């Protein structure tokens, strides 16, 4: 009989950026359980202290629903391949959160999600959430800029970084450019707009994530006035 070893929601943990310097409160709850064939440790982030309580609830519910949906799919798939796993091997589902930016009524969060379903290695992905707290909305890359002309500037800055750091960016399969996926695959950190590419997007899996830190000061002329506060 398959035995569920742990099924618990652990206590709330406050991330290092939790409501520091006027930032938004960010708390973590962890869902952790284990079966004979799988292991789960899923962090779920919650915002707190927002003036717009309706948006706060909607955001928090959306994050939890997304992870719960992924867990249902994972549990089903793990059960189906349980007999195929090598002795002592288990399927794994893990999520963790990194608060990249939390001030000026703006929040950049990156969820790292790792799933192992047997084989040589698991799959890791980053899921970014950029939140304009002042406007009570999640934003995409386009929302930061006045018009689509910014794309050419971003591509130029990325190309310059590749040429100036050839060793760091050696082994890329193709020239990195802004694609549809990058309209969500970005975050703000230390005065930069960081565009990232998932493993396998531009290079082999072991190369990991490919990132480009683009100074916001060089993009100021293209940015909407309300986002000058990020510079």
Structure at a glance:
The chain is of the alpha+beta class. It contains 2 helices and 11 strands, in the order E-E-E-E-H-E-E-E-E-H-E-E-E.
Instruction: Give me the oligomer status.
Output: single chain
The CATH architecture designation of the largest domain is 2-Layer Sandwich
Number of strands: 11
Order of helical and strand elements? EEEEHEEEEHEEE
Strand percentage: 25-35%
CATH homologous superfamily descriptor of the largest domain: Fervidobacterium nodosum Rt17-B1 like
Low-confidence stretches: 1-11
Total number of domains? 2
Mean pLDDT: 91
CATH topology of the largest domain: Heat Shock Protein 90
Number of helices: 2
Query: Which descriptor suits the 3D outline?
Result: flat
Helix content: 10-25%
Name of the CATH first level of the largest domain? Alpha Beta
What is Rg?
Answer: 20 Å
């Amino acid at each position: 009989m398959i035995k569920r070893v742990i099924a618990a929601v652990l206590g709330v943990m406050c991330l290092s950026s939790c409501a520091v310097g006027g930032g938004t409160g960010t708390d973590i709850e962890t869902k952790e359980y284990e079966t004979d064939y799988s292991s789960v440790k899923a962090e779920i982030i919650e915002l707190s202290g927002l003036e717009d309580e309706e948006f706060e609830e909607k955001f928090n519910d959306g994050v939890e629903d997304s992870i719960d949906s992924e867990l249902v799919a994972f549990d089903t798939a793990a059960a189906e391949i349980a007999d195929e796993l090598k002795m002592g091997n288990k399927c794994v589902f893990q999520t963790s959160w990194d608060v990249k930016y939390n001030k000026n009524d703006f929040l950049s969060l990156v969820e790292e999600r790792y799933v192992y379903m047997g084989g040589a290695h698991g799959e890791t992905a980053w899921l970014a959430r950029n939140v304009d707290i002042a406007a009570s909305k999640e934003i995409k890359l386009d929302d930061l800029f006045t018009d689509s002309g910014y794309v050419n500037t971003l591509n130029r800055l990325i190309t310059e970084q590749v040429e100036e750091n050839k060793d760091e960016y050696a082994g890329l399969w193709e020239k990195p450019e802004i694609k549809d996926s990058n309209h969500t695959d970005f975050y703000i950190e230390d005065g930069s707009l960081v565009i990232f590419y998932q493993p396998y997007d531009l290079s082999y899996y072991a190369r990991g994530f490919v990132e480009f830190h683009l100074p916001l000061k060089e993009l100021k002329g293209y940015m909407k006035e309300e986002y000058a506060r990020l510079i």
